[in-house]
Amino acid sequence: MSVPGKGILFSLVERARRRSAWLFHFNAGACNGCDIELITCLTPRYDVEQLGIKLEGSPRQADVLCVSGPVTRATREALETIYGQIPFPKVVVAIGSCPATCNVFAGSPMIEGPLDRIIPVDVYVPGCPPRPHQIIEGIAEAIERLAAYRATPAGGER
Ligand code: SF4
Q: What share of the chain is helix, strand, coil (3-state, %, to 5)?
C-alpha cells in the first residue's frame, strides 16, 4: 500500500542528505595531532557545521569515515567493525600521513596499516598533521564522491 506524500518526503530527505555529510571519526593509533586539527574544523573559526558537516557519534548514521593514525594492531578490529556499521553509500577519508603510509610508525610490528590494506580509501589528506583547510578540502571531495556513489545503481557498494 502506498503512503501519500512518501515520494515527496523521500525526495526532501535525499536532497537534504546530498547537501550534508555526517562524519564519524576514528583514531587508529594517531598521536592526536590530526585529531586536534579535525576538531578545529568544527570550531567557530572554520564552522563547517554551517555547511551541514557534522560530527556524528554513531557509525550507523554517518556517511563519511575519517580515520587518523597508522592502524595499530589494537585498533584494527574496531576499525573493521565500524566500517561495516556505516551504511552504503559511504566514503573513507584518510587524515594525515599516518593512514596513507604509516609515516614514522612504518616498520613497527605493532602496525597493521596503511589504511588501504584494511578498508578502501576514497580521499587522502596529506600532512603531519594537515591544516584544517586541507581537511575541509578533503571532506568537500568526500561529499562529491558520496554524491557520485549515490547516483550509481549499487549505491557505491563495493
Ligand atoms: S600524521 Fe603526524 S600528526 Fe597525524 S597522527 Fe600521524 S604523526 Fe600524528
A: 45, 15, 40
Measured distance CA(24)–CA(104) in Å, rounded: 25
Phi, psi of 40 (to 5 degrees): -60, -30
Q: How far apart are CA 154 and CA 128, in angstroms?
A: 35
Query: Is residue 9 a part of any domain in this protein?
Result: no
Structural domains of the chain, count: 1
Predicted TM-score (pTM) above 0.90: no
User: Tens digits of per-residue pLDDT, 8-49?
Assistant: 555 555 555 566 889 999 999 999 999 999 999 988 888 888
**Closest C-alpha to ligand 1, atom 2:** 128
Give residue 132's domain range: 21-150
Q: Separation of 39 CA from ligand 1 center, angstroms?
A: 14
Of the candidates 33, 54, 20, 156, the residue with the CA atom closest to the CA atom of residue 99 = 33
User: What three-state secondary structure class fits 59?
Assistant: helix
